[in-house]
Amino acid sequence: MRIVQKLIPGLLILCMLRANAQNTQEVKMKSFIDALMKKMTLEEKIGQLNLLTIGVDVTGPILSKDVEQKIKRGYVGAILNTHGPAAVRKLQEMAVKDTRLGIPMLFGLDVIHGHTTMFPIPLGLASSWNPDLIQHTARIAAIESAADGINWTYSPMVDIARDPRWGRIAEGAGEDPYLGSLIAKSMVKGYQGNNLADKTSILACVKHFALYGAAEGGRDYNTVDMSKVRMYNIYLPPYKAAIEAGVGSVMTSFNEIDGIPATGNKWLLTDVLRKQWGFKGFVVTDYTAINEMMEHGMGDSAKVTELALKAGVDMDMVSEAFVDHLQKLINEKRITQTEINTACRRVLESKFKLGLFDDPYKNLDDPDYKEKILTPENRAYARKAAEESMVLLKNENNLLPLKKSQTIALIGPLADNKQDITGPHGAASNIKNNISVMEGFTQAGVHFLFAKGANITDDTLLLKELNANGGNITVDKKNPQQLIEDAVNTANKADVIVAVLGESQGMSGEAASRSEIGLPQSQEDLLKALVATGKPVVLVLMNGRPLTLDWENKNVTAILETWFAGTEAGNAITDILWGNVNPSGKLTVSFPVNVGQIPIYYNHKNTGRPYKGDILFKYTSRYLDVSNDPLFPFGFGLSYTNFNYSDIKLSKNILTTTGKITATVTVTNTGNYDGAEVVQMYIREMTGTITRPVRELKGFQKIFLKKGESKNVNFTLDVNTLKFYNSDLKYVAEPGNFKIFIGGSSDATHEASFILK
Ligand code: BGC
User: Fold this and answer.
1) Is 674 among the catalytic positions?
2) Number of domains within the chain
3) Strands 710-718 and 660-669, sheet pairing
4) CATH code at 548?
5) Does any ligand 1 atom lie closer than 6 A to the CB of residue 351?
6) Class of residue 551 by CB neighbours under 10 A (exposed 0-12, middle 13-18, buried 19+)
7) Could you report the per-residue pLDDT of 710-747, keeping only the tens digit for each?
8) Domain holding 663: CATH number?
9) Could you report the per-residue pLDDT of 360-408, keeping only the tens digit for each?
10) pTM (2 decimals)?
11) Mutate-to-test residue for ligand 1 from 79, 154, 171, 252, highest number of ligand atoms within 8 A of CB
């Protein structure tokens, strides 16, 4: 205690010094930008608000034209999709040397799960339930992309998603606002580091603001219509968390909110983002989102440009609507100079914070830059991240882990595949660096026989579409029946079948919605033939979304969900299959039994007629042909060992508005392997002024237990744990009865009760 007392004055001085340094920096920034803006013409200011695309990737429906000339004329503030120090330097020099004021540009890229060293897709990373690990993957991505000339990433994507038909569910953290918020914060911290001016920091961009994950029917770019109460309690928290973590930029979403597209929505971009949340960075649109407001029916090109600027957009991605119309809109007095100045200042501030005015070629002069990329350490971390992300969904008769003495039939179109394991948004990855499952098996020296068994899909229309968009999916010369026969013959020579099946990377991600989310028919046929051999089957899944796996779950012996696991996928899968690593991932999104159950999510409302298990009682909220329960619930994931949970002990049963309650469980590893468990704590408010979810995640801890070991796990709750937005959108906790549940999944059965007074 005395030590703490002694330390306090020191800490206070440190805090004051830090605050002072920050103030000095703010003053310096203001006077620098004041002076710069005094020199800028209106045209130059508008140029700062223009983001064009040029370079290696195409990530939208149109490409920018004459970009180099436009840079030299001072019409461009930022570039998307160019990377590599030489390519970036060439363009940066045009901005710095060929324009009147030499203002450097931002260079942005979708670095969303790694730059060259690829980590699992974000939905996979989230399944690690390990925010520190996720932060470190973002740090590595920042270091690699910064070395490669990038200073801005369009990540984290924090859209809550309850509909697995939506392909972009792959890019986010799943269905939960609490977990999603923690992950949003970690990613922002990982990318931006302690100081944006550092050579290893890049500017983060939280997207897609807002509610994009609730697109109708899971169709990309579609309509969203949602109550404010749902917005504030479920969908907005992760964006807000990113703002609180200091994210430097925000990207608008393609959907509408209350009938107004996000890109022209003043309530969203100004009232919520700036006034309620105090966001100080800049807002960029999504790709051509200003122009798309014409298709939405919001007016002509000038009108939608006016809407966007007035709503609070600072930078226009690829529409070139700002450069085309802002000057004219000023002349017509439809917008003001002040509005342009505000947007321009925000963009310049970001460049200042990144240190680009001090050194526009930051990171572009390092001859050894390649040594920072794909290092053995980064690869090792990618392997660890992939291992922590994988979720064991079924393991009958403890088939897994496999034994070195067994002969394995490695079957499936994804088994020797190096390209799809990258998943959507490969940034600067190269499939040559990827380890396929077959390579993982070979390196581990296990005994296996291989047969492809099926094409990823035999649907010629789908193939055409996927391949037109970079799918590179080949169709085998053998016909589907021959492929299956070969696979069955191979399987018959083995002890265990490992079937590596799932989606190609283009079947998930942007513009990759599916109405049926099972395995493609060709692979389903193969799996049925493999099961018919009577040999035990381990289904190793690669996919970017929850799949419908009802038949698979009933018929195969073991299922391992590996997502698109990135560069080290094959090694990580091998480690798990042979038990070098015990799986510990847990789902962050519910897996439906069938598509008819969608939307499906654990934190649903009770309704006035909840189903209580009696099928003869007709008038309840349910289906006649399928249960309301998901196949695999949120939070679910098995281990090679077993964890036993004790009853919950509460330190007291009454919580006051200034007090705390500690909930304790003892978790024991009762199985035969050491392993990690994600201990999850949920609450339910039994009555409220608005209806409350049946469960809400409010805490979790990932613990490691040696076999036979026990640990007490404590969760502390106070009034803040219980707060939510009421019908007046006030953030309150309401007195009343609460239940608390602790366990290894959202269907945890141990419960206790307390009262908030
Ligand atoms: C996507 C964004 C992405 C942008 C730039 C858009 O189509 O919706 O998520 O950041 O393209 O590539």
Assistant:
1) no
2) 4
3) antiparallel
4) 3.40.50.1700
5) no
6) middle
7) 999 999 999 999 999 999 999 999 999 999 999 999 99
8) 2.60.40.10
9) 999 999 999 999 999 999 999 999 999 999 999 999 999 999 999 999 9
10) 0.97
11) 154
